[in-house]
Amino acid sequence: MNGMSDVRLVLRSQELVIEHERVVMASSARGGAPAFGAMGLFWHRLRTRKTLLALTPEELSDIGLSPEQARKEGLKPFWRS
């Protein structure tokens, strides 16, 4: 690893979510489509959720998620945020 603590990884994850929401809101405010577009966003969610389900307990621990949290998120349909 690069020396980042688990707490820092969780905080960075939260920062990325906040930044993504800010970009989406800004593009919506000016009438534009999100960066991915609807289909791109669906594919992104599908791929990342499948990947999340494939992570080991150790990898989940590294990103600050429990197996239950990962399963809950990973089993969401791709059309749900």
Automatic annotation (TrEMBL):
Q: Name one Pfam family in it.
A: YjiS-like
Domain named YjiS-like is located at 38-71
- Superkingdom, natural source: Bacteria
Q: Which InterPro entries match?
A: YjiS-like
Annotated protein name in UniProt? DUF1127 domain-containing protein
UniProt source species: Pseudomonas gingeri
* Lineage of the species this protein comes from: Bacteria, Pseudomonadati, Pseudomonadota, Gammaproteobacteria, Pseudomonadales
